[in-house]
Specification:
With 195 residues, this protein is mainly α. 69% of the residues lie in helices and 4% in strands. The chain has a two-stranded antiparallel sheet. Helix 2 packs across helix 4, helix 2 packs across helix 8 and helix 7 runs parallel beside helix 9.
Length: 195
Amino acid sequence: MLDDTLADRRGLSAAEAVRDYLEGEISNGALLPGDAIDEEGLASRFNVSRTPVREALLQLSVRGLITIAPRAGIYVSRLSIPELMSLLELLAELEGACAKLATRRITKEDGEALRRVHEESKAFAEQGDAEAYSRANAQFHEIMYRACRNEALMNEIAHIRRRTQVYRQTVFQNQVRIRRSREEHGHNRRSGIGR
C-alpha cells in the first residue's frame, strides 16, 4: 500500500508517488525487464484510482522504463544489446564531462569525502567484497556528480543509471572490474578531483 504520509511529506501527487515507487522497483531489480505490470493490481495495491496509475505508467513509458503495447500489455522495457551498449557508452561520456566539471568546482568537503570513500574502497577491493565495493563505488559517483554542480547533467546521468542498473548489478563480481574501477577513480583524483 502506498504510504500517503510519505507522498504528502515529499509533496508528491499520487501519480508521482506511484511512479517513484515503480521506478525504484525497476532500478533495484525487484521488477525485471519483461515483467508484466498489472494496472488494476497497482491501483488496488496503492489504494488509488486507475487514473494516477495510468499517469505514472505513461511517465515511465516516456522515460523508456516500461513499454505499453496495445492489446499486448504493459511490461518493464528490455534493452537490446546495442541499446544497452549505446547507453553505457553515453553514460561513460557524461561521467567524463561530470568529472571535468568537478575538477573545477569541487569543494574541500567533497574532495575529502571522495578521498575517504576511495581509501575505504581499497579494503573492499583487496578482500574481494563485491557488494561493499559496489556501495562504495556508488558513493564515490554520487559525490562526483554533486561536485560537478550541474543539475541537468546530474539528471541525465541518473536517468541512464536507472535504465541500465538492472544490467549492471553483477559488474563487480569480476575482480578485474573492481581493479579497473579503482584505477579510474585514482585517475580522477590525480586529475584534480579529491585533492
